[in-house]
Amino acid sequence: MKVWGHIVRALRPAGRATGQPMLMLGAVAALAAVAPMGGEGGGGAHHGRCRTPPTTGDQTLVVDGYDVAFYVPAGAGKQALPLVLDLHGSSSSGLQQIAGDGIRAIADAEGFAVLAPNGAVPFNPAPGFSGWAWNIPGVPLVGTTTYPPAGTRDDVAFLNHAIDVAQEAVCIDASRVYATGASGGGRMASQLACDLADQIAAIAPISGVRFPMATDTPPNTVQCQPSRKVPVLAIHGVWDPVNVFADTPPADAATLPAPIGTPLAGSSWSYSAETAVARWVAFDGCRADRPKVTAVTPNIDRIAYGGCQQHADVVLLKFKNSGHATPGHGNPAYDFLLNPTNNEIDATQAAWDFFSKHRR
Fold first, then answer.
1. pTM for the full model?
2. CA–CA separation, 278 and 284 (whole Å)
3. Which helix (H) or strand (E) holds 172?
4. Of 230, 255, 272, 348, which residue is the least packed, with the fewest Cβ within 10 Å?
5. Residues 241, 324: contact at Cβ < 8 Å?
C-alpha cells in the first residue's frame, strides 16, 4: 500500500543488477567527481543515526510503498555521509543505473551514499528495452508527445521523500545532498534543482541538462524557479543525437552513424544543451561573456563561468567527440543509435569531483 505523507523505512539486502550499457535514443533508452566524510552529526544530519556505524553495501529503502536502491559505502562509520541521487534514463531502472556508471566504487573511495530510485512511469518503448521513466512536470515521455496520465506519482515529491527516508536510515549530511543522472535522469536532476533547491546542493546532469521555461512548449511547460542559486555541472557530447548539444548540427555530423538534427519543438528535448546551460548561467548571475575554457584533453573542454552569485558555479564539460551515452561508460555496440562515446575520463567521477566542492 502506497502511503503518502508518511515515510516507512526498511533496510534489507538488494541484489545487484548486471552491468548494462548506458544509453538513450528517442523512445529507446538503454542505460549506456573529492571530499572526506563530514563530521559527526554535521550539516543538519539525523544525530541519532550518527551514533552507530551503518550496515554497508547494497540496501533497499521503502519510500511511500516503493522499493528504492540504496548504497552505503564501505568503511562508513559514525560520520555524516554526503548523499548522491543517481537517476536513471528512460526505460531503465535505479539498479541498472548504478550497475552501469561505476558509482559504487567511487562511493567507496570517496565516502558518500547513493540513492537510485525508479521513475513513476512504466516505459517499454521497444523489444529489449524495459524499465521506467520519470514524471517530470511539463515534459512528455521521451520520443513522444504523450504526457504521463493524470494521477501518475509526483516524482519531485517522491524524491523529496526519498531523501528524508535515506536520512532516517543512516547519518546523512543534509547540506551535501546532490543529484546526477543520465539522459532522462539528467532531466530529472535538473528539475530537482528547480523545485528542491532547499534540499539539493548541486547537480551534474549527463546528456540531459535542462532549465525549463513556460514559453518552451505551452501550455504544458513549467517555469524553473529555484529558491536559491544552484551550482551546475553539465556533461554533454557534441555528437549527441538525442538531446542535441547546439541549435545546429556539428560540421562532422554527416560522418557519424546516428543523425544529429535540431531541437524539436513539443518534445522532451525542445531546446539545446547550450541553451539550457545559458539559462543556468543567467539565473545564477554568472558572467556569460568571458568563460574560462580549459582543455582537459584535445577532445574535452571545461568551460567555467565566473562571477556567479552565492558561489553557484556553472561549468560545462564539452565532449567534442562523444554522443548520448555517459562518457567513460560507452559501448560501441550502440554507436549506431547514440554515436561513439568518449571514454577518456569518467563522467561519474567528474560529477563527484564537482559535488565535493559544494554544500548548501
1. 0.88
2. 10
3. strand 172-182
4. 255
5. yes
* Rounded CA separation 196/225 (Å): 10
CATH homologous superfamily for the domain 22-355:
Alpha/Beta hydrolase fold, catalytic domain (3.40.50.1820)
Instruction: Give the C-alpha separation, 54 to 103, whole Å.
Output: 19
Specify the long-range contacts of residues 292-298, CB closer than 8 Å, at least 24 apart.
Answer: 296/345, 297/344, 297/345
The C-alpha cell 559501448 sits at 331
- Give me 73's grid cell: 559505502
For the CA atoms of 360, 45, 80, 82, the dihedral, rounded to the nearest 10 degrees, stands at: -40
- CB atoms under 10 Å from CB of 134, counted, come to 30
pLDDT of residue 126: 76
Return the amino acid letter for 270.
Answer: S
Peptide bond preceding 219: is omega within 30 degrees of 0, i.e. cis? yes
Q: Residue 138: left (phi > 0), alpha (psi -120 to 50), or beta?
A: left
d(CA 231, CA 355): 9
Residues 349, 354, 355, 358: what is their CA dihedral angle, to the nearest 10 degrees? 160
Spell out a b/e string for 141-157, using b for 16 or more CB atoms within 10 Å of the CB, else e. bbbeeebbeeeebebbe
Report the distance separating Cα 17 and Cα 69, nearest Å: 11
Looking at residue 221, its pLDDT comes to 86
Burial class of residue 207 in the structure, from the number of CB atoms within 10 Å of its CB (0-12 exposed, 13-18 middle, 19+ buried): buried
pLDDT tens digits for range 273-292: 999 999 999 999 999 998 99
The 10s digit of each residue's pLDDT in 307-346 is 999 999 999 999 999 999 999 999 999 999 999 999 999 9
Compute the distance between CA of residue 173 and CA of residue 163 in angstroms, rounded to an integer. 11
